[in-house]
Design a protein that fits this description.
By secondary structure, the chain is α/β, with parallel strands linked by helices. It has helices at about 5-20, 35-45, 50-60, 60-70, 85-100, 110-125, 140, 145-150, 165-180, 195-205, 210-225, 285-295, and strands at about 25, 75-80, 105-110, 130, 135, 150-155, 185-190, 235-240, 245-255, 260, 265-270, 275-285, 300-305, 310-320. It is globular and about 60 Å long. The termini are far apart. The protein binds S-adenosylmethionine. S-adenosylmethionine (SAM) binds near residues 39, 84, 111 and 114. The site of S-adenosylmethionine (SAM) has 18 residues, from β3 and α7.
Amino acid sequence: MQSASQQNTFAADVLRGLSASPKYLSSKYFYDDEGSRLFQEIMKLPEYYLTRVEYEIFSEQTAEIYAAFKAEIGEFDLIELGAGDGAKTSLLVDFFLKRQAAFTYVPIDISAEALKCLSEKFAAQFSNLSIQAEQGDYFLTLQTFKSKSERRKIILFLGSNIGNFGKAQAQDFFKSLRAVINEGDGLFIGFDLQKDPRTILRAYDDAQGVTAEFNLNLLTRMNRELGADFNEKEFSHYASYHPIEGAARSFLMSRKAQTVSVEALNETFHFAAWEPIFMEISQKYTLSIIEEMAQASGFEVTENFFDDKKFYVNSLWKPI
Ligand SMILES: C[S@@+](CC[C@H](N)C(=O)[O-])C[C@H]1O[C@@H](n2cnc3c(N)ncnc32)[C@H](O)[C@@H]1O
């Protein structure tokens, strides 16, 4: 359930996005209850390699990650931005607890549903885990980091979540993170690497159409929460991958000329036939871009963890 101010922000963001040219919607609004459920389905799809390869890194290199985090030294907060179902993190948590590491797990997510499921699951699985879940937008919660605790912080940003920012926005995000962390803290980021463009494209255009449903669900959400009258059948999901930019993008295409009204905004929006709404970017990286980005935002790459196929990297950064 959203608060009135979250609802107003949603409405204001929709107004901005649908009034722009080209039109866009922010991907952070994908994750209502149904969106979070659909994302769980996406993670199980054969085409969606991202979750599997990151899981492989976490399950096969747990001890190395533990050592790289210096988890045996003193108390720390393990903060996860956009935690989702925490499935990969649970591998670390299990390992860390067995070695009596002294940490508090702080999952942050915009989706109340995702956070509730994760908290219940972790409470059942790890009876001695100290956990402080926080619902909210991680852009806003960043501001509270300084005052959170005196403990060292290890910040997890997994699942190629960073890919949902363009490169420039990612750079700004890392700079804002740098401003709120201290020497000795760490940042552990999951980057999807550039690879065969066909493999990438399939991950965003699965044969069963779950990704299409995930995108279209945002129209349903606007109908329910903002009193919009989108006919989901009149829009279709389209995904593309641009190998020079290294960017996969998803769009909803208006299948015909149509006008949609949004009661909460007291506005109507016209769509030309086959006009796109830009929904999401999934930026793919190279190791040299990752190095440059770390340096440009005041960090240094300390260690990279790869899956067998080198599809993906979990990169540990320290502030300099
Ligand atoms: C792509 S999923 C990744 C989930 C998880 N980190 C993983 O690796 O499986 C993105 C998650 O981030 C959350 N999220 C997206 N935008 C957010 C924002 N601005 N603030 C907080 N959480 C956000 C979503 O609710 C969702 O659970």
